[in-house]
Amino acid sequence: MRDDELTPASVDRFVEQYRRATGLPGVAVAVTKGERIVHAAGYGRAPSGERVTADTPMAVASVSKSFTALAVMQLVEKGKVRLDAPVRDHLPEFVMADGRAATITVRQLLNQTSGMADSTFHEKSLPQPDSLREAVARLRPARLATAPGTHWSYHNTNFQVAARLVEVVGGEPFAAYMKAHVFAPLGMRHSVTVDTERDLPPSARGHLYILGRPVPLPEPHGFGNGSGGVISSAADLTHWMIAQNDQGRGLGGVRVVSARSIAEMRTPSSAGRSYALGWSLGSTPNGAPVVKHGGDLFTSTAEVVLLPETGYGIAVMAGTGLAFDDAGAIADALVAMAEGRRPVSPPAVSPFLLIDVTLAVATAVTLVLAALGLARSRRWAVRRTGRSRWGTASRLALYVLPAALCATAAPIFRVLSRGRDIAWIQLFYIYPTFMIWLVTATLLTIAVLATRTFHLVRPRTEGDAQAFR
C-alpha cells in the first residue's frame, strides 16, 4: 500500500481511534476513487439505538445545496431554465419588497451573490414555513442587503428559492423530482429530501456533547428543503461522489448531468471566488485543489470532499451538532491520509469538556449564592432602611443584568457572527452549558430581586429592626 492510499482498514482504524478519543456516538464514512468504491461503513449507534451501517439514512444538511444545484443544471440542459436570466422569468411568485430583486439571476441564487442575506432577512428566527412555496412567499416583505451580483453572502434562502424553481419548472414536487431524476438514476436507494426537522428519520437525529458525554436531543424547529433537506447514507454518497468525479456519470455509466455542467458548477463568481454553484472551492495543505461542501444541523454534521487531481471522494456524516464539527475533523484527517500526511489526532482532553466543567461549577456557585441571597433578603431589606434610594436601586439593578443578557443573546450572536441569524432556542444547541448557566442565573437573580423588593416595600415593624441589629 502506498502512503497516499486510503484503504478500508486504515479508514476503520482512524475512525475508531477518533471515536474512542472523543466519544462520538455514531458516524458514517464513504470513500471513493475515480469510479471505484473504496469503502462505505457505519460506526457506533444512532440516538434511536440502532447500529449505524453503510445504509443508515443520515442528514447531509447543507451538502444538499450541491444536489439542488445539479437539479437546476439538469433543467438548464433541457433548455427550460437559463442560468443568467432573472429568477422571476421562471418563477413569477418570487417577489420581494426590494425592487432590485427583479434582477436576481438563477446563477446568483446558486453562487450566493443574490444580495439576500441573514442580516436583512432573519430566515431562522422568523416563523418557519412548511413548504417551498411558503419559503418563497415569506420573502415578500424582505429587502436585499446588497445589489445582486456584487457581494457573496451565505444564505440558505437562496437554495430554497432554487428548489422551488425546480418544482415549478420541473412540474413536480421537489422531493419527487429529486427521486426521479437524481437519486433513482444514480442508485441512491436510501436518499430523500425533506422539508422540516419533523420529517427526519430517527437515525438522522443527533447529539450534543455535555460534560464530555453525548446527549441525544431533538433537532430544533426549522425548514431546510433545497438548502439542507437531503437524507442519505454512506453507500448512497459513494454513488454521488463517483458521478461528481466522473463528469456526471454514475456507476454503470448512467449520466445525470453533462461534463460541461459539472465544470459550470465548479466555476465561482468574481464576487465570491471560493464558492461556485453549490460547491466550495479551496486547496489542501499540499496545494491540491478541493471541491467540497460542509453541512451543519444543530445535532449533526456532514462533509463531502472531492479531490479532482487524485479522483478521491470522501464523505462523512456524524451524529453530533455544528458546535463540534466532528464530520469536518474526520474528513480533514482522511484527506491528510489520502495525501500521505499524518492526520491530526483529537486532543486527549476535549476543550469542550474543560469549558463545560467550568460552566457547571459556575452554575453550582450561582445556585449557592442565590440561596444565600434569598435566605438573607429580609435582613438585607431592613439594613437598607433609611439609606439612599438611588443606592438601593443601583444595587438591585445588578440583578437585572443576567436577564438582560438572556433576552439579548440572539442579537448579540448576530453581531458577533457578522449578521448570521439564529433563533434564541438554537443558542442552547451551540452553547449548551453556557445557556444553562445563563438561564439559571436569570431565574435565580429575578427571584432574589423580587424577594428583596418585597421586603423593601412591606410595612416595617419594630421587631424587624431589633431582630437584625
UniProtKB/TrEMBL annotation:
Signal peptide feature range: none
Pfam family, one: Beta-lactamase
Xref: Gene3D superfamilies: DD-peptidase/beta-lactamase superfamily
InterPro entries reported for this sequence: AmpC-like, Beta-lactam-related, Beta-lactam/transpept-like
Domain Beta-lactamase-related: 11-322
TM segment ranges: 352-375, 396-416, 428-450
Source superkingdom: Bacteria
Assigned keywords, A-Z: Hydrolase, Membrane, Transmembrane, Transmembrane helix
Protein name: Serine hydrolase domain-containing protein
SUPFAM superfamilies per UniProt: beta-lactamase/transpeptidase-like (SSF56601)
GO MF, one example: hydrolase activity
